[in-house]
# Entry
Amino acid sequence: MSEHVDPTQARAWPPGLSPEDRRCEPRLPPRAGVDVTCRALPDGQDLALAILDVSASGARLLVRGTLTIGQVVEVCMYPADIPAGFQKTGRIAWAASLPGGYFSVGIGFDTPLSPEACESLIRPSEPALSRGRTAPTTAFEGGF
# Structure
């Protein structure tokens, strides 16, 4: 399933361990409206179609065309409210072929995103309901 694996550049992981299980920290869905570009350095064209998830240490992107394991890329992420966006360089950690000539790629950033950048890029989680209770369906059901 992985494309262009170079054994000299790929990490050695236990057999059967999925790419999601190899992450240093969990990746979360981006906020709505985050645009992304991804270019192979030094002068590649933008291959990014969408950002699928992100953490301080990396991102998973949907791309058209192939990127090789270990390839250096520049990723620019643009939240709707920050036109300048956030630019990171990193390396392709893994790539999975998808139908139609598309690929899902995992990118490890060379330096982590700041907490402020993460807050701007990552969709806030849903509020947790305490003690397994379900949310009231009417204003009076939950009591006063």
